[in-house]
Amino acid sequence: MTERPPEPGDESPPEPRPLTEGMRAMGRTRRFTRGCLAAAVAALMAVTAASAPAAQGSPDRSAAPRELGVATYNVYLGADLTPLFAAGNQQEFVAAAAAVYAQMEYTDFPRRAEAIADQIGAHEPEVLGLQEVALWQKGPLGGPLGTTYDFLEVLLDALAARGMDYEAVATNANFGTTQPVPISATEQVSFLDRDVILVRTDSRLKVRNAQSALFDAALTLPSAIGPITVPRGYSTVDVKVRGKWVRVANTHLEAFGGRFVRELQGRELIAALAGSPYPVVVLGDLNTCPENTDPCTLDDTYEDVVGAGYVDAWAELNGIQGGWTSGQSATLDDPDEITHRIDYVLHRGAGLRATEVEVIGEEEADRTGGTPNLWPSDHAGVVATIVRARPGRHVHD
Prior knowledge:
The protein is of the alpha+beta class. Helix content is 26%, strand content 29%. It has one domain: Deoxyribonuclease I, Chain A. The two termini are 26 Å apart.
């Protein structure tokens, strides 16, 4: 890849000019006022400090790798939507929609957001990819809707309360209700699923070129109110890490049993990122497992991604097994049921390497406490440190 010229403000500052002429002048001058003598001593001290060798053991900043802390977290939209597709008629559909909304309230995202923020706060990644960042609205039947739960705002507030200010820099809207759905004879609701990339505002990362798109491949499911298409997509943003750009992508591939749709979406994502002029980091819930890791239903998505040159950060440091991230019950109040790994931090590009990776939100101590005692999400998150070594240098653990 051709090296890009430095942007304004990125150039190294010029070296200070040595004061050799001033020093010679001071040597020839025999009379100093008290003020001149003080100035001369200060100048001499500055020159001595500038020319002194670095203390033994001081870090060589020119050799230090560029580190980027990242995380992926499917925060769970709050309810199992599959009963909507099992309803046999309009009346059953309304009852199913009411049950979905009630389950979303039971799983209490404001409380869960506190637990998720605790997990994120323990690592403070610079870039965070979120999936299932739901927007729920409710209102009188036939009347205007008002927002009842905006998961993005709730989580941003929980993070800010812990001293972590994040900004949403890229969002893609996935599936949702095209029209409000009745949940009773007097009320209606709407829902929108989003994926969001957050960047920590104090990270000093330069951010540009936010892009979002929907996949051409989309699952269509039958329902009592007619066919429901489930669009999904991805977002990308370029971040500058100590002078070098990295493209970060966030996605959530098909979940509702659409193996072939999921494979097509994965291939679309690979193709879309193939033209990146920078190394790439992918965050997301891919709804696919590595081959030979039970109890997953196998499809080719993971193999397609790895075959395209992406490195699975968990497997890179721990091997293909373990690192389970998914399987909690829809109500989030059952014992630990995480059984498989479908959430990933992946990277592609010369010099990139994961030096740390950890699953978060999967331990009993991570739950909300209280009644009900909820898991932070039906997924665990994954945090990782990705480094980009400088040319000609190795990255050491």
